[in-house]
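To close the section, here is one more complete example, presented without commentary so you can practise reading it yourself. The ligand is (3S)-3,7-diaminoheptanoic acid.
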Amino acid sequence: PATIYLKDYKQPDFSIHSIDLVVELGEEVTTVSSSMTIKRMNHQASTLSLNGENLELISIRRNGLVLNDTSYECTDEYLHIPIPKSEEEFTLAIVTRIKPQENTALEGLYKSSGNFCTQCEAEGFRKITYFLDRPDVMSVFSTTIIGDADLYPVMLSNGNKVEEKQLDDGRSYVKWEDPHPKPAYLFALVAGDLACVEDHFTTASGRDVLLQIFVEKGNEDRCNHAMTSLKKSMKWDEEEFGREYDLDVFMIVAVSDFNMGAMENKGLNVFNSKYVLASPQSATDTDYDGIESVIAHEYFHNWTGNRITCRDWFQLTLKEGLTVFRDQQFSADMNSAAVFRIGDVQRLRAAQFPEDAGPLSHPIQPQSYVEINNFYTATVYEKGAEVIRMIHTILGKEKFRNGMDIYFDRHDGQAVTTEEFVKAMEDGSGIDLTQFRRWYVQAGTPVIKVTEGYNPESQQYSLTLEQENPKLAENFLPYHIPVDMSLLDGNGKAIGFTTDTGAKSTGKVLNLTQKKQTFVFNDINSEPTISLFRGFSAPVKLEQNLDNEQLAFLFSRETDLFNRWDAGQRLSSNILLSQVNRHDVGSLQILPQMYLSSIRNILNDRELDPAFAAIALSLPSEQDLAQKMPVVNVDAIHIVRNNALKEIGLKFESDFLQIYKDLRDLKVEGNQPIASNRKFKNTALRFLTATAKEDYFALAAEQYHAAENMTDAMASLFNLGESEGQIRDEIFADFYQKWEADPLVIDKWFTVQAMSSRPTALEDVTNLLSHPAFTMLNPNRVRSLIAAFVSGNPVHFHEKSGKGYQFLFNAIEQLNGTNPQIAARLVTPLGQWRRYDAVRQKLMTDKLEEILDISDLSNDVYEMANKSLH
Ligand code: B3K
Ligand code: ZN
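Output:
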């Protein structure tokens, strides 16, 4: 397979000004007729090469005249048409046929639960018709859909509906026009027998926008949260960024077979039903948060992605990093900001840090790729968002907004690069971002080493920060890093100091720009404790020699809640990892008294937001701990962590039981317990069942039967999933029977079993592959069982026999043929082989070799396996 490089980018030779599509939907074949007006952009070009894959070509006409098959060349990937150099402008009409019902890759036009839908980003439009399928070709689209009136009463495309009629043959005819020129990846078409939930939004300038959510019949009552989230997003984008919606209708369609979360097609977002449908009975509080943020994310793309799009796919972070930053800010504003910030960083550390330290490491602006679908990564999205956040921190809120205004004014309607974005930020702020641009092109997570000094005589405190990048070693150039910091006194209160401008301050954003740099603070009358990278002001790893007493101090006193939580996690990690290291010695392991008292502090602090208390008490995950070991010992980590849960559970048993009961019986909002209380209550339950006392499994079972919402039901299921015996089996059977008809809930049932640490876990998941409800053709189902097992069950996935790796290989081999995008994503865990012992390394690399030997290997899987191995 060929590698594509950013340095080879060339402007298109031709541009397509308009395209009128007529799509005749059929059960056997679907016919697509397109008429395009095309303009020459390059006077030297002699051939127009249109992208096209898996299309049956029926006819081509140029300027109305039929081309015979000697006047063009058709390959597996292109249609080459010679164009006389004198021809400045011409029309092209092409008819092709496709079979959406056979499309299991879910890219292009396909069928899901009997409905037609599309997914065109990144390069799916070429599977619908021949076109210049690249984001810098922007066209005005019209779409006419013709299909069986009974099977497809709803027929949708981008923009506004301009015509609708019944044809004599029993088919309906609907025409849509989208006035905004757009790249083909934002095209969408949906047809099916769908129900519609409607609402309205009045924009800041007083325009009325019709809001429609289309779902499978029977799901109408599960759209409230999505609709509320949409209206909140529309309002927030007006208030925070001055951005109004620009069409008369905004449509969302929920489909059950979807490769990712959702897609921001102009005016017609297509969503994975997981991010639309929710009721308290069927969805957890976490699901509710996910819906709010994905609805916001896709809506915000209307300006950051659609109105201003990417010149080429190397610029993906231009729209994704920026839009993730926007959705994170939105969710922080709608909820508890600190708790949400902690969640963002947890996800970054869990997915992006290992990616950036491993063989698939790439800068947020990749410089090359084989298959662009492999680059919708945590790096492009989450690290990309952190890069935007750093610009926000360096510029400050006001200047950041100035920069955004300039960006929108200057580039509306264009396809641009990250360079244009950074330039707008410089122009809007007057701040030089030359050095900052390195964040776009250098891979790897920087490590910051901290040294401190305090001189009581001169009352000066000095802070030395040194940057390193283990991934790039001596090839890296120092970054411009915003360091949000404070100095704390013995009570955790911020100390005033004199800044270099002579102003008094208690907090400051330092600009770390050199490899090694010292900052001096004056008028400090006693030795301070440093609070660094407040709110996680940069995506870096910190190497700071704090002992456990200092961490415990920060865990109880730090006023920055992110740092307070992080100090607790660092403290827990230190203690658990030292136990892991002593594990093989077989010595008796007990938790130090000081650690237990810091847990006591949190339990006693009744001022704390219960959601914060819950995450503060939660131990770092097995995966978090693994990241901190040079050679991962999955078994020791699991045992040590479980023992710690048990010891803490026993030590504070009566406290946890009290918290559990208090919060269970506390009704707040509309006589319902609120989400943050549920979270703390279920954390308490986790510690209680960790004691392994029968009573607490009975309590979990009781909670299951009494549960009025899915959050509580799932918490019970997770706890019982760890146990053996009759109660567990009965409840799992009951849950299945109750929710059999509800795929999103059944996904959860698969996931709990995939993540269980029961000794039979691998056998269980293998058996579940043959469960009647399991199918490899539905991505949510694959994620719920296979992905949940390989990334959420380290002990069993990495089992020494290699059976877990074989289980993964089998799935990849099968999915390679049906859905390469999903298959490729599953390769990732094997890419971490260097982190394991020699026996596992061999087993994992053998599997990667075997993957490379799969016949008809897709480009997607090839790129992932090949890079993972080398
Ligand atoms: N832009 C889409 C992702 C498309 C992925 C293509 N493989 C969803 C989003 O980021 O909003
Ligand atoms: Zn996005």
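Once you have examined the tokens, check your reading against these statements. The longest helix spans residues 561-583. Residues 138 and 182 are 4 Å apart (CA to CA).
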